[in-house]
Amino acid sequence: ADDVIDENGFKEHHALTFRTQLAYQFHQRYKTINGKKVALQMNTPRVYLNYRQGIKSSFSDTRFAFASAGISFNTDLGNAGHTKWDFSAGGFMDNKYMEFIDYQHFNGTQTFYLQQSAYSYSSIKRFSTLGYYSYSTDQAFIEAHVEHHFDGALLSKISFLRNTGIHAFGGANYLNNFRDPQFLEVAFG
């Protein structure tokens, strides 16, 4: 990223971009509250597709096509807690002309604190220690996230912590952009 971002920021360019996202939650159920249809929290898998295209025109400098697909789901392990999973992969089918801002960027550290996931379909699709532009790519990538919440299974065994409501969790995040070394982070808290 250092070769495309200087003291003036990004190179100025004009872009006409088409973007769409599709998601499907298997066996989704709804509830009506005050006349409004509200989706219930489900543990069934959710598949999602993303597509972006930069369209070359008289006022647009870009030409690219990007697609990605993924699946996210939860696994209930009873007294041992629950695990959240997210796997995705994607890449550029065409990258004839694109600027760095059009690359695929991954949700890493943008400021000194951890942001929520930018993806409404997957709350764990983020990295805790990855620099925001460090692994940005104009090629293919594979991304995986797993987070296990023990829901009191570990800390409830310690008598003075039992009533505090404190819970333990562990997780791992993985990224491979097939250019830089593979990125893996593991967390426990």
How would you describe this protein?
The chain is mainly β. A 7-stranded antiparallel β-sheet has the order 1-4-5-6-7-8-9, with no helix packed on it. Strands 2-3 form a two-stranded antiparallel sheet. The two termini are 31 Å apart. A hairpin with an 8-residue loop joins β4 (46-54) and β5 (63-76). It has strands at residues 17-25, 30-33, 36-39, 46-54, 63-76, 82-97, 141-149, 169-176, 183-188.
Q: Could you give the distance between the termini? A: 31 Å
Spatially, the strands of the biggest sheet line up as: 1-4-5-6-7-8-9
Helix proportion of residues, in percent?
Answer: under 10%
- Globally, the shape reads globular
User: What percentage of amino acids are in beta strands?
Assistant: 35-45%
Number of strands: 9
Mean pLDDT across all amino acids: 84
CA gyration radius, whole angstroms: 20 Å
Indicate the structural class: mainly beta
Which sheet architecture does the biggest sheet show? 7 strands, antiparallel
Helical segment tally? Answer: 0
Poorly predicted regions are none
Elements, N to C (H/E): EEEEEEEEE
Features:
about 0% helix, two-stranded antiparallel sheet, 7-stranded antiparallel sheet, about 190 residues, mainly beta
